Amino acid sequence: MAEEPVTMDKIVSLCKRRGFVFGSSEIYGGLSAAYDFGHYGVLLKNNVKAQWWKAMLQERDDILALDSAIIQHPKTWVASGHLAGFTDPLVDCRTCKLRFREDHLQQSACGRKPSKKPGETPDCDLTEARDFNLMFQTTIGPVQEQGTTVYLRPETAQGIFLNFKHYLQFARKKPPFGIAQIGKSFRNEITTQNFIFRMREFEQMEMEYFVPPAEAEMWFQHWLDQRMNWYVRLGLRPDRLRLRPHDADELSHYSRATSDVEYLFPGTIGWLELEGIANRGDFDLTQHAQHSGQKLEYVDSATGERYVPHVIEPAGGPDRSMLAFLVDAYDEDTIQGETRTVLRLHPQLAPVKVAVLPLVRKDGQPELAREVERMLRNQVQVEYDEGGAIGRRYRRQDEIGTPWAVTVDHQSLKDRTVTLRDRDSLTQERIAIDELGAEIERRLRQPWQSPKLA
Ligand code: GAP
Known about the structure:
Blueprint: H1 8-17, E1 21-23, E2 35-37, H2 39-58, E3 63-66, H3 75-79, H4 82-85, E4 87-92, E5 99-101, E6 130-133, E7 137-140, E8 148-151, H5 157-162, H6 164-170, E9 177-186, E10 201-211, H7 216-233, E11 241-245, E12 257-265, E13 270-281, H8 283-292, E14 298-299, E15 306-307, E16 310-316, H9 318-329, E17 330-335, E18 338-343, E19 354-358, H10 365-377, E20 382-384, H11 390-400, E21 404-408, H12 410-415, E22 417-422, E23 428-432, H13 433-445
Parallel strand pairs: 3-9, 19-20, 19-21
Antiparallel strand pairs: 1-2, 4-5, 4-6, 7-8, 9-10, 10-16, 11-12, 12-13, 13-16, 14-15, 17-18, 21-22, 22-23
The chain binds glycyl-adenosine-5'-phosphate (GAP).
């Protein structure tokens, strides 16, 4: 595979420079693995989430939406197995005074001789591993000592199982059907790494698909295909994506089978999980039925047949997807002897769709450009920029991935036409202002693939 110009350092620096992502609490020295999303980061992540909702809700009729509470009844986590088992093996190094996940030791920087593997570095003095629960605790009630201990949810999935009964009743759904949710989850991760890839506060996009037990295998396969296609349709290059089935000793306590969608990150980082697709069987509904005393099953009113549905779960993360889209889109080329940094994002994902630029800040050009901006603003996310040389303004838009730039020039004032510049091909077409809206719409709807593949 050809060497790519992208590195994680370049992504981190672009994200900070152009207002996608900042380290959290930087004025106080920062807080590790916590990040704030700036203007373009919000727009990009919103587009990722909108595409997920579209695939779940708009393009099919068997999935419904939910937004459940972050703090749930503490019994939830007893029933789900998280209180007892959502742990990582924690190891301390007495020499380096650093903490590690035992299963991540090989990739850690432990040891005063970092060229050697940590476990083999004689200077390192590692403790035995002990289990560390990843759930954040807090208390409900005004007096901390007398309050009830509750947890910030470590996954959005359980909120779906707690609401299963409501969906049977209000939506009168019959398996197969799904419930989808996007929201914040929290994990006190021991090791954090790779920018926004592993954070302590992050978002998940999870869908629980309830099926007749005999159909579980078939639906598992269906969701593997659907989810891989979603990433490809949004422009991730297929040769950097793979599905990796879990080995039996890797499976979570609830899972009968899991495959991860993995993306090949640059340099030494390698393949990392973007999303897990699991066959959870009837584990969750059975556990919550036992702990709540409620019946969580489907009863067919016509035949009287009753069963506990099995669950297929595609569980992804908008933060990780966003990072993969950024890494995959990052490119550098040379224009008129100058290096250009460009994000070749799928137009549907790009934070800004159209930049509107007057060629010069006089002769009525800004006024006409403002008119074009107002016209397009009803339709898509637009940015107006009149500051600095036109070349510099194009570069700024290239760096945030804006697919099209509309330039109002001398001729525009005579015949109400503008130029429409394409971020990737760099072609400029002259087009009537009246036709701009339809042309942008047409381009947005076209199937798209990364120009890096060409
Ligand atoms: N309900 C199943 C579940 O939570 P998971 O593989 O632990 O499965 C699903 O998480 C997805 O959530 C991951 O594939 C990833 O996209 C995202 N995710 C998990 N932990 C994360 C973290 N610490 N930072 C960012 N995203 C995370």
